[in-house]
């Protein structure tokens, strides 16, 4: 069985004032963009939870059982992945980066939810991903309605 890889250790999340500008031809930018866009898909979140549950187990649960998923510093893979998600969220929620997201609402919502231990633990349950799919359906319907109204000269009212 092949060893499962974990994301590279990430620096402490930066503030938007000291973020480097996105480099579209940078392989890391492209890889992270593809990954965060994948997170907007509830089916992909379910796949992550089912395939890599050790990455989504909250720290309190993972520290209770010492395993091979810890590095020499004592950080579990779940802790490392949580820090990587925080790093991604710090970048991709800024206007400089979010302009590249094809589904910014769903992507940023998923990144925000993934900051919570409870969500990372519960995303394995089918009801959670089904609820996310319903939210996405409503958002898509609202966007289609707004675009239809704009095409007919009707201005959408704020929610």
Kindly describe this structure.
By secondary structure, the protein is mainly alpha-helical. It contains 9 helices and no strands. It is globular. It starts with 26 loop residues before the first helix and ends in an 8-residue tail after the last helix.
Provide a concise account of the structure shown.
This protein has 159 residues and is an all-alpha fold. The chain is 60% helix and 0% strand.
Give me some keywords for this one.
159 residues; mainly alpha; globular
Rg from C-alpha positions? 18 Å
Describe the main β-sheet briefly. none
What separation lies between the terminal Cα atoms? 50 Å
- How much helix, percentage-wise, in residues? 55-70%
One letter per element, helices H and strands E, the order comes to HHHHHHHHH
Number of strands: 0
Mean pLDDT: 76
Helix/strand layout:
Layout: H1 27-39, H2 42-51, H3 53-56, H4 59-64, H5 77-92, H6 95-98, H7 104-113, H8 117-122, H9 126-151
Helix pairs in contact: 1-7, 2-9
């Amino acid at each position: 069985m092949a060893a499962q890889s974990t994301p590279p250790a990430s620096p402490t999340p930066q503030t938007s004032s000291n973020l480097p500008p996105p480099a579209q031809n940078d392989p890391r930018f492209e890889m992270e963009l593809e990954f965060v866009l994948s997170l907007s898909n509830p089916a992909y979140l379910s796949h992550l939870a089912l395939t890599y549950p050790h990455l989504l187990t909250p720290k309190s649960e993972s520290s209770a059982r010492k395993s091979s998923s810890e590095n020499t510093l004592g950080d579990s893979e779940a802790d490392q992945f949580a820090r990587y998600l925080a790093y991604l969220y710090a970048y991709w929620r800024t206007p400089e980066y979010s302009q590249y997201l094809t589904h910014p609402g769903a992507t940023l919502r998923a990144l925000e939810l993934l900051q919570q231990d409870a969500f990372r633990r519960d995303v394995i349950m089918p009801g959670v991903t089904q609820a996310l799919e319903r939210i996405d359906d409503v958002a898509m319907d609202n966007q289609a309605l707004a675009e239809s109204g704009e095409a007919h000269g009707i201005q959408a009212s704020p929610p």
